[in-house]
């Protein structure tokens, strides 16, 4: 399986040739028909996709999938869509979801911007999650950061009127960049207070990576924003 994406000049990620295990490879054969979605399907009929109508949580860049799997298990009343370009993480997530019998999770292995443009209906997402995106910490690479004004406006169009955009990062410089972009973007309200970072909501699990960072004294910054009425 290869990620789906359209040609574009600047990306917010690098396709790494990660080593995929036999178990992850087998997971695509066994579980992709159950959990996988494709850009070629076009705009989703969410009720048909999940076999029910329920609040939708969408996460970009779920990595190895641990926290997304945990949330889907903890919140069975919600539907979840995860987007990730790296096959090892996708393979692991669908394997564990299949073995757990989850029916409220679907996955794209594709460029997130392409998915938003072609597949996610307007005003359909109740919680939009962007956790620990690549910080592109070198200044010359900051243009590759996914949190940019055009992307933020795209997200706003996908959220329901009561929806929330939840961002989290462990890079303080990127946290400040995120806050700066969001505070300047039209049509958003900081759900905590103007310019304020948020406490970690209970629904966001603490990852092993985050626990390790906390022991080393590393911080994590959460931001919560709601769309203003159009």
What does this structure look like?
- The chain is an alpha/beta fold and 230 residues long.
- The chain has one domain: 3-Layer(aba) Sandwich (Rossmann fold).
- It is 35% helix and 19% strand.
- The protein has eight helices and eight strands.
- The protein has helices at 22-35, 46-50, 66-74, 87-100, 112-118, 149-158, 172-184, 208-215, and strands spanning 36-37, 56-60, 79-83, 105-108, 125-131, 159-169, 188-190, 221-227.
- It has an eight-stranded mixed sheet, with helices on both faces.
- Helix 4 links the parallel strand 3 and strand 4.
- Helix 1 (22-35) packs across helix 4.
- The N and C termini lie far apart (40 Å).
In a nutshell, what does this entry contain?
This protein has 230 residues and is an alpha/beta fold. 35% of the residues lie in helices and 19% in strands. The mean pLDDT is 90.
């Amino acid at each position: 399986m290869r990620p789906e994406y359209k040609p574009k000049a600047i990306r917010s990620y690098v396709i790494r040739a990660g080593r995929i295990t036999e178990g992850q490879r087998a997971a695509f054969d066994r579980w992709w028909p159950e959990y996988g979605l494709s850009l070629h399907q076009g705009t989703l009929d969410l009720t048909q996709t999940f076999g029910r109508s329920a609040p939708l949580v969408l996460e970009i860049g779920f990595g190895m999938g641990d926290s997304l799997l945990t949330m889907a298990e903890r919140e069975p009343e919600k539907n979840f869509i995860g987007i990730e370009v790296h096959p090892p993480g996708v393979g692991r997530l669908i394997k564990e979801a299949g073995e757990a019998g989850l029916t409220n999770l679907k996955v794209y292995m594709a460029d997130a911007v392409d998915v938003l443009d072609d597949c996610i209906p307007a005003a359909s997402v109740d919680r939009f999650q962007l956790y620990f995106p690549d910080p592109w910490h070198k200044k010359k690479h900051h243009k590759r950061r996914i949190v940019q004004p055009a992307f933020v406006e795209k997200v706003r169009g996908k959220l329901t009127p009561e929806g929330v955009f939840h961002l989290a990062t462990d890079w303080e410089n990127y946290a400040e960049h995120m806050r700066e972009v969001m505070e300047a973007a039209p049509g958003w309200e900081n759900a905590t207070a103007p310019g304020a970072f948020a406490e970690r909501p209970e629904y966001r699990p603490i990852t092993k990576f985050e626990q390790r960072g906390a022991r080393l004294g590393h911080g994590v910054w959460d931001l919560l924003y709601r769309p203003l009425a159009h």
